[in-house]
Amino acid sequence: MFTGIDEVDWASLRHAHGSAADVPGLLRGLASADAAEREAALDGMYGSVHHQGNVYDSTLACVPFLFALAARAEVPDRAAIVELLVSIGTESAGPPARTAVLAGAEAFVSLAEDPCPGVRRAATAALVRFLDEPARVLELLGRRIAVERDEQVLRALTASLGLFARSRPAEAAGAVRLLAAQSGPPHSPGTRLAALGQLGLGAPERLPADLVPTAVRLLRERSGHRTTAPAPGRTEPDTLVGRIRRLRPSDEEGSNLLRTLHRALDHRVADRIALLVGQLDSPDAMDRCNAVRMSAGLFREWRADFRAPVSLIGAQLRSAEDQLRDAAVSVLAELFELAAPAADDLHALVIARPDLWTHAWERGRPSLGGPLKALTRSGDPRAVPVLAQSLAGPAAPAGLGFEVVRLGAAAAPLAPALRRRLGRIPLDSPEAAELAAPLLAALTALKDPAAVPEVLRLLRGAPDGLGAREALVGQAVRALDALGTTARAATPVLRGLLDTRHAAVAAGALWSAEGDAQAVLPFLLRELTLGRGRGVRTAAEQLGRLGAAAREALPALRALAESGRGRERTAAARAWWRIEGDPDPVLPVLRTAWSENPYARGAIAECLAEMGPAGAPLRDLPSGELTAARRHTARPGGYGSHDIARDERLLADCRTALARR
């Protein structure tokens, strides 16, 4: 197995953490008779030699030895070694890695017929990925399907057929025929579900018309046939691989089957909702848990009437299964106002489980617990008394104020407690800005005039220093801006900030307090023409608030609107309209910005609502947005936790813009 390993100059090779001198030990560890040593070696391979999917010269040097290990029947855990080889050879790893694995691809033929089911399962995808003989690959897959009796290997063979059909469309007909055969009797429910998913991805025209009821029925049949369940109390070693395994769903195979079906249905949102409803109504808790997890991607990417699945996700909060309940809470917390159909169940859980009001972290301050966060974000006023109790405790959960914002005016009873918390922040603490930010956000949203003394205390007493003071001052000035004329006591402090990096926001707060355009106009013009980044956008926004009094800024605003970037351009165009009142030169800028930068659409929709009939030539923009099925922030690779809320706000702004025609 290791012939020639000592002839490789490993010390001159590299991996993610430097010299690859330790790699021979890792390779030998993969063949160890000791399970813990094998696990540690595999962890080392993924943690350094193939770190985060990357390939190094040491990775390429390992490939022949990994093939040798995979071929020896006496080596335990060979399936993991085959999986590692497949991962190294994927196209995303680069041509050298793929070439290295292709050189040994013939080995996968015998591995696909290995006595060990795990090895056969891992090798099936390799046949499609690395054996460059399509007819032979299809014949091998068909032969294995005919004789295979292990259900997990059959699922892998089905997935390999789907991969073949998608990657070799010219030769896909044979693979599609095999998949169609697998999608019906006498195959098991799991295999039929897998085949339907692969048909949906590669040959959707072959899907049955009654796909959703068929899939739900097969799902329940599969659950009824499930003979094994995760062992209670099962523990995984504290390694990278072990931690990944702990994060996997209890029914990982079921999760993968459903994920494939949802991917296949893609934009068929009504069908996906119906499938989710069927899953969420299953008598099997693992099926429901998989459905909850699957729902997150649907909600993030698409717009639809989600009340039925959201209500059913809320019903999972009554489950005694911690994993199911926690998954439901996690999804609902991302939905904000869309979680309203689950609000009763959220409230019931919050009342029944005070221990879930906060979440303790190993390091750092506790944060708001998931159920209370989800209830608050939904805008339900029943969260207010519970939040008041949390604020009355010795340490308020971190970030509580940011969530309070979602409650709007209903959170007014919390203002005194928020002010007290703000007034107790030690200004010499390095955490002062972090502690103050959520409290300032809440008091700003509530426009609480009684908060002026506490905000002034922050401005006057914030310690010198780069990051902490700068962040704290910016947050405090924005709070004063929202308080309008009630913040007049702060004007001397605000004037002192007009020659700092906070000039634009300080000028806006000063305008709000005094209404003297001439006092702030020079500073805003300076920031507009000489500032950078967010300061330029803020200056444009503040100039727009001055209206006709800021006509002097029109040349600079026009230039920024016509040649600026992203949201700066939108802010300048909006200010241009507010100052001059002529929509004709502004509308083309807004149209271009709408198509170029989806993240500017919210501000543009607000501007169109403000313009009323003057914005009629751009009526097609909000109208088209309201008919678009995909969320404007939908993008590959994941989503931020507030993307749904941003998109729903955009839709609300679009409706307002159309109503003010």
Q: What does this entry look like structurally?
A:
By secondary structure, this protein is mainly alpha-helical. The chain has 36 helices and four strands. It has a two-stranded antiparallel ribbon. A two-stranded antiparallel sheet has the order 3-4. β1 and β2 form a beta hairpin. α7 runs parallel beside α9 (151-167). It is elongated. It starts with 13 loop residues before the first strand and ends with a helix.
**What is the count of helical runs?**
36
The secondary-structure class comes to mainly alpha
**What kind of oligomer do you see?**
single chain
Strand residue content:
under 5%
Mean pLDDT across residues: 91
Main β sheet profile: 2 strands, antiparallel
What strand order characterises the main sheet? 1-2
- Unreliable residue stretches: 228-234, 240-249
Share of helical residues: 55-70%
Radius of gyration: 30 Å
Shape: elongated
- Total DSSP E strands: 4
